């Protein structure tokens, strides 16, 4: 009989919570001036890779997004090292950061629907 939840689906929310804490508390880069939200974490079946989806609470500026993604991907080794101390896992996944624009996309669709309604 198969388990209802795989191990990767149980570890993903814990990674999401811990990565958000690390970014807000321990990552002190003066070039990152915006609030970063970790919206989702997808972990591979063998727990060796994790895709971290982030979003920002300000306007969508593609140059700023690329810069912040570059800085976070450069700091992924440091974030992984801090995760080793916080989580008791045999394998800490390699982290790659991706931009999640679903909030702005949903906001745009909502405003279009409101215009149609009027």
TrEMBL record:
GO cellular component terms attached to this protein's record: cytosol
The record ties this protein, via PROSITE patterns, to: RBFA (PS01319)
What's one Pfam family the UniProt record gives for this protein? RBFA
Q: What is its main location?
A: cytoplasm
Give its localization.
Cytoplasm
Superkingdom of origin organism = Bacteria
A Gene Ontology molecular function term of the record: ribosomal small subunit binding
**What are the UniProt keywords, alphabetically?**
Cytoplasm, Ribosome biogenesis
Quaternary structure? Monomer. Binds 30S ribosomal subunits, but not 50S ribosomal subunits or 70S ribosomes.
* Family from the record: Belongs to the RbfA family.
Question: Could you tell me what this protein does?
Answer: One of several proteins that assist in the late maturation steps of the functional core of the 30S ribosomal subunit. Associates with free 30S ribosomal subunits (but not with 30S subunits that are part of 70S ribosomes or polysomes). Required for efficient processing of 16S rRNA. May interact with the 5'-terminal helix region of 16S rRNA.
**What name has this protein been given in UniProt?**
Ribosome-binding factor A
Q: What is the lineage of its organism?
A: Bacteria, Pseudomonadati, Pseudomonadota, Gammaproteobacteria, Enterobacterales
Q: Which gene encodes it?
A: rbfA
């Amino acid at each position: 009989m198969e388990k209802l939840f795989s191990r990767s689906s149980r570890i993903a929310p814990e990674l999401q919570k811990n990565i958000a804490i690390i970014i807000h508390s321990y990552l002190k880069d003066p070039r990152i001036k915006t609030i970063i939200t970790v919206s989702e974490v997808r972990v591979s079946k063998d727990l060796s890779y994790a895709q971290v989806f982030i979003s920002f609470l300000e306007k969508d500026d593609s140059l700023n997004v690329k810069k912040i993604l570059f800085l976070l991907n450069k700091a992924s080794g440091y974030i992984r090292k801090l995760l080793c101390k916080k989580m008791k896992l045999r394998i800490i996944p390699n982290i790659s950061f991706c931009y999640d624009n679903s909030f702005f996309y949903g906001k745009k669709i909502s405003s279009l629907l409101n215009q149609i309604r009027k």
